[in-house]
Structures are given as structure tokens and as C-alpha cells.
Amino acid sequence: MESTFLDRRIEFLKGVGPTKAQLLNTEIGAFTIEDLLLQYPFRYIDKTKQYFIKDIQRDGEQILLKGKIVQVKMIKGKRAKRLVATLKDPTGFIELVWFRGATYVQNMLIEDNEYSVYGRINIFNGKKSIPHPELENLSQGKANLKQERLDPVYHSTEKLNARGLDTKARKRLVKNILAQLHEVDLPEILDDYIIQKLSLCSRMQAIQWIHFPEDNTQLQAANNRIKFEEIFFLQLRILQSKTLREEKKDGWVFEQVGTKFTKFYNENLGFELTNAQKKVIKEIRADMGSGIHMNRLLQGDVGSGKTIVGLMCMLLAIDNGFQACLLAPTEILAYQHYTSTIDMLKGVGIRTAFLSGSVKGKKRKELLQFLINGEIDILIGTHALIEDPVKFKNLGLAITDEQHRFGVIQRAKLWEKNKTKPPHILVMTATPIPRTLAMTLYGDLDVSIIDELPPGRKAVKTVHKTEARRPEVLQFMHKEIAKGRQIYVVFPLIEESAKLDLQNLQTGYDQLEHYFPKSDFQISVVHGRMKARDKESEMQRFVQGKTNIMVATTVIEVGVNVPNASIMIIENAERFGLSQLHQLRGRVGRGAEQSYCILMSSYKLSVDAKTRIKTMCNTNNGFEIAEVDMKIRGHGNIQGTQQSGISKFKLLNLVLDHEIIKTARLIAQHLLKHDPELTKPSHQRIKSHLDSLNRKFIDLGEIS
Ligand code: ADP
Ligand code: MG
User: Fold this and answer.
1) Which of 127, 394, 660, 671 would you label with 360, given CA atoms 20 to 30 Å apart?
2) What's the alpha-carbon Rg for the chain, to the nearest Å?
3) Cα separation of 589 and 587, whole Å?
4) How far, in Å, from the CA of 305 to the mean position of ligand 1?
5) Phi first, then psi: what are they for 437, rounded to 5°?
6) For residue 299, which ligand has an atom nearest its CA?
7) How far is the CA of 584 from the centre of ligand 2 (A)?
């Protein structure tokens, strides 16, 4: 049974209208009433803790006071007026101040009435006040709304706040939805015995409590219930699709190791494979020779040598009469794979081609023709490669590099590139997650891990510097450039404003140009808004060693390989996530020289930012970093989960909620073991919810 109320578009909600609906669409991706309802608060303000005025100490602290308004005064300043009300409690006085809407508030305030006041303390020159507090009149009858509770705070954006859709307004909208919500809209989807066994609250109850819990017990109960649901149904889907895949067992068989593979291995490969690489190639070969369709995740830290492994697998495919393709998330990376592949395969007799959005017209037409005729062995490119007109003669292996940028849906599109039988799939990722978690998340994939770096790598030395130490950093840069090294300087992407991004980058560039004048130094610039061709040529100048410094936004984050670049300077490092920092650092330390990563930040840092930076300085190990990252970020923000389509956890934290995950997996396994098709009457709710989830994903084009 599906709810028509929840499927309704938000513009039909009271208080929303077309303009606000549009904003909610674009800013937080909410289109239907359900979308809005399922965006849970990200934190709660504990309004149960009441303060006394004498105890106020910290600037910026958010607090709840109770007291009497003893005086209300309009003060006319030079340019504008402000309203000042004085609040008295048993321990002292404090001023409440309004700059906006002063007249309105003045008319509303009643002297000598008791109020509850909530707001952020401002301490200026030792004087304490609360600007624009939230008020509730306790002397008037209508204040019988329960006061003691946890107040939800929703994720918002500048734009939403500016247009009156701040957290308060969101609260009203959600309240409004909850008031109209009936049991039929959120019917129970778990069977009674599970609910009883785990003492879960109902689905309806959980949704109410997650938005408006009266106390921590309710909040906890809501969390438990929702988290369990999130992981339980994912587990069921994964286990089911895995069984299905194992039953199908229908993959191309690559029987032989042929001449191309052997020639490459004996003549072109300039180094010994690490044991980890050998082990992984064996695993992949076994898959591709078995007749079972391969769907494998290859994990390995940055620089562990995944590319070579991918390349050798492609040669296996080609030796068995198939084509192969390699998909990369950015044009720069795809092109780099293309040139390095050509380079590595010199003399092996492989026809390699490149395709991206910027390959157009006659060239594109020709390429597509070659591809379908089988005159191209390896096609390397961006996601332009999965578009419909791109047809292969017989694609046997599809590799995606840096998987976190691709979703399940795109992977599924690759399957369709061979209509007879899907090509084998190898997904390479440098975002290592612990194996057990990988199995939970990517249960539909088998997992191979390269857990060893090629020999002779020196660990990158990572240091943290604040702005005050800039001169030192500049001096160091000069010294390293004099030794012939190259340097990356990376600026963060400021998502809300592409304009600010450029400004930021431009200022940084100007500053660098001042210290590294054009007469003696060359600087490359790459950012997201440049044309692909310009980006490529700037990148190439750096690759070829023609420029000393590469100034870039995070477009270079992924995969780029310039062994002579040995210094990575990350500006505003506090703005980057941990895995992103680790990826960026992975750009250096690829040559024989000692490499450095310098994290620049302002002096003031949030607790999380401090943890991230400290972690980076302490370890080079991607797995350790991934674990810290998961602990900090929680809520399914790990790269890969967002786009994976099947696992948009809103509340579940893959590290902290270990127990819930274990329980959910056990129950799911047990259930499917005794009732694989979920035909028993006691499993009907679960089955019908699972069916509706599957329908949703099939609508999205996912195959599993
Ligand atoms: P990543 O896993 O990050 O994709 P790459 O495949 O780009 O790593 O490899 C990084 C560098 O290490 C490349 O220059 C590659 O040629 C080199 N490399 C890969 N495997 C080995 C090895 N076994 N011995 C020495 N160098 C290697
Ligand atoms: Mg790589």
C-alpha cells in the first residue's frame, strides 16, 4: 500500500507555494512531502537545561533562560533603531536586543510577564546580551505547549535561511505534515515478532519522535528503529541479489593467458609486481575463467598500483577475443589513463581509443564505428562511455576507476553494453574501508584488497602550518623548486558559490605569482570551470615538467600521476574531508624523492577539523584514515555510500552502530535461510516493503 499523501508534491503543503517549493527542490532535494518528512534533524537543542543569568560565561553559547521582562525600550541610533528589553531572573539582569522587526516585537512584549528566552549569548566588551532570542510568554494561557523538550535543528542553507525557510519554518512544515499523517501513510513494514524481539517502536512513532522527541528516551527509541530499518532492508536486498547472481553463474569464460598478456608481462612491465598485486590478479583471473559473472571491488590505497592490475586484466580479455573499457570520473584522469596505457602497451599491438564529451563530430562518429566493428580493443573515457550510442562489438570487461564517483546505476549501464551476456565488472577504489564493512555495503560485489605498496616508497611527511608560518612555507617551496621538484597548491571547492571558488583560487594564484615571478617560474592553473581542452593543456604542461607549480581546485584529487611532483600544499585544509585530504596527499610520494604534504589552515579550528588534520599528520595508512573518517562523519557520508543508491543511510553510522548492523544481518540471514522467497504469511509486510523498494530501484534503472 502506498501513501498518496506522502507522494504529494510539497507545493501543495500549506505554507509552501511554488517559490518555496522550488527552493526546497534545489537546495535540499525535497520534492514530495515524504522527502521533507524523511529529512531528519541533524541535532537537537536541549531545552531542558535551564540557565541562570549569573552563570553565563561563554560567548556564542546557546542557552535557555526564564525570567520577567522588566523594561522595554526603543533606542534610536544614528542610522537605525533597536529594541532593548531587560530580562530579570533570580540571579541578575540581561539585555535582549532586536535590530530587525523592532516595532513588531515591541508591540508583542508585555512588561512584567514571565518569559522563557532562548538564544545565543553575545559578549561584547564584557557586556552580555542576547540578540534576536526566541521567546515564549509563560504568563499567558497559550504557553501550555510543553516547554521541556529537545528542539530539532534541520540542515539548512544560506538561501533557505534568507528566504524564510530556516529551521524554525522547517519545524512548522514538519509539524504540519505530522498533523495530517495517518497510520495508512506509514504502515508497519516489520513483522511483529521482530518488533517484539528487538523491542522496537512502531514506524509511525519513530517518525514522530525523531522530529519531536520529548526526551532522550524517545529520541533513542526513534533512532534505534530507523537505523535498524535502514540496514535491515539493505541487508535483505544484498543477500537476495547475491543469491540470484550466484544462481545465474553466467559469465564469459576467459580461458587462456595469451600472447599479448605474456608479451606485456615479459617485455613491457618494468618492475616486479608486489605480492598483493599478484594475489589480486589471481583472484580476478579465477573469476573470469570460471563461467561466473564477475562483479568485483578492488580496493587499494592510493599508489598501491591498481592501474597495472586493471591493465593486465584488460589484456586477458583481449587475448580471449574481447574488448575492454576503462571508465574514469574526470576527463583529466581518463586522458591520463589513456596516454599512460598507450605508453605501457608500446609494441604489444593493442588498439586503444579515448572518448569523452569533448570528442565530437567526425572523430566521434569514426570512433563509434571502429568500436562496433571491433577495431578498438580498449576504450578509455569518462562517463560519455556509458551513453547509449556507444556500442561495442563484444565487450568482455568493464573497469571503473575510483568507484566512489559512480553509482550502482552507472555500473548497471555498463552491464548492458554487451547484450548477450554482461561484461565482467571490476571496480577500483582508493577509498579503503574495512573488509567487513565493504561486505555490508557492497555485498553484491566480491572484494579484493591490495594491502601493500610497491617497494621503495618513502612515506609522505605531513605537517600542519597556520597562516602565520606562511613565510617559512614559501621559503621551503623555493628550496624544493631549486632542487627541480614540482609543487601542487590546492584550494577547496566552495560548493555554494562557484564565484567565490574562483576568487579564492585567483587570490592564491596572485599571491604565488608575487613570490614566484613569471620571469623565473612557471605556474599552471586548473579549475572546474575551465574548458576541458584548456585544463588538459595546463595539466600537460605540469606533467611534462614545464611548470613548477600547479594551482588547482580539487579537480586533481583523483588519480593524477606526476612522479616528479613531491610537495602537496593544501590551502584551507580544515575545509576538506579526511578521505579527500588522503586522496590529495596520494598525488605526491610517487617518485623516488622524499615528499611532503603541508596542510595550511587558520588558527581557529573546530574539534573535527583538528582531528582530521591530526590524523593526517599521524598516519599514511588509508584504512586507519577511513576508520577515523567514518567515526567523525557517521550518517553514511562515506564516499561511495551516497552514490551507491542502495545505501542512503540517514541515521546509521557504519562504525558506531556495529551492534545494530550485526543484529540486522543475523536476522536477515536467518529469515532468508528459512524462507528464501519470503512466502510465509509472517513475512508479508517485509516482502511487500522489499518489493516496493526493488520497484523503486528498478525505476531508477538499477539491475541487481
Ligand atoms: P593507484 O593504486 O593509486 O591507482 P597507480 O596504479 O597509479 O596507483 O600506481 C602508482 C605508481 O606506482 C605508478 O607510477 C605505477 O607505475 C607504479 N607501480 C605500480 N605497481 C608497481 C610495482 N609493483 N613496483 C613498482 N612500481 C609500481
Ligand atoms: Mg589510480
Assistant:
1) 394
2) 29
3) 7
4) 3
5) -70, -40
6) 1
7) 12
**pLDDT at residue 49 tops 90:** no
Best-predicted range by mean pLDDT among 160-169, 239-248, 350-359, 442-451? 350-359
Quickly state the pLDDT bin for 156 (edges 50, 70, 90): confident
For ligand 1, whether the C-beta of 585 sits within 6 Å is no
Collapse the DSSP code of 673 into the 3-class scheme (helix H, G, I; strand E, B; otherwise coil) and give the result. Answer: helix
Classify burial at 381, counting beta carbons within 10 Å of its beta carbon; exposed 0-12, middle 13-18, buried 19 or more. Answer: buried
Q: How far is CA 605 from CA 94, 330, 573, 577, 611, in A?
A: 30, 31, 10, 14, 10
Overall average pLDDT of the 552-571 stretch: 81
Kindly give the distance from the C-alpha atom of residue 343 to the centroid of ligand 1, in angstroms, as a whole number. Answer: 14
Distance CA 47, CA 637 (A): 28
Q: Which helix (H) or strand (E) holds 5?
A: helix 4-7
State how far the alpha carbon of 657 is from the alpha carbons of 189, 196, 207, 215, in Å: 21, 20, 19, 21
Q: Is the dihedral of CA 646, 649, 652, 656 positive or negative?
A: positive
Across 529-614, where does the E strand assignment appear? Answer: 549-552, 565-570, 596-601
Taking CA atoms only, the protein residue closest to ligand 1 atom 1 is 303
Crossing angle for the helix pair 622-633 and 607-618, nearest 10 degrees?
170
Q: Is any ligand 1 atom within 6 A of the Cβ of residue 336?
A: no
Mutation test of ligand 1: which of 264, 272, 275, 304 has the most ligand atoms closer than 8 Å to its C-beta?
A: 304
Nearest atom of ligand 1 to the alpha carbon of 277: 23
> Could you tell me the distance, in angstroms and rounded to a whole number, from the CA of residue 337 to the centre of ligand 2?
9
d(CA 226, CA 212): 15
Is ligand 1 within 6 A of the CB of residue 582?
A: no
Distance 656 CA to ligand 1 centre (A): 34
What does 105-164 look like in DSSP terms, one character per residue?
HHHH--TT-EEEEEEE-EEETTEEEEES-EEEESSSGGGGS--SSEEEE----HHHHHTT
- 605/633: higher pLDDT: 605
**pLDDT of 477 above 90:** yes
Residue 211 and residue 174 in contact, taking contact as beta carbons nearer than 8 Å: yes
The whole-angstrom distance between residue 598's C-alpha and the CA centroid of its chain comes to 24
How many angstroms separate the CA atoms of 617 and 464, rounded? 7
Ligand 1 and 443: CB distance under 6 A = no
Q: In the chain, what are the domains? A: 1-47+158-173 (no CATH), 49-147 (2.40.50.140), 259-288+305-429 (3.40.50.300), 461-619 (3.40.50.300)
Q: Are strands 127-131 and 122-124 parallel, antiparallel or unpaired?
A: antiparallel
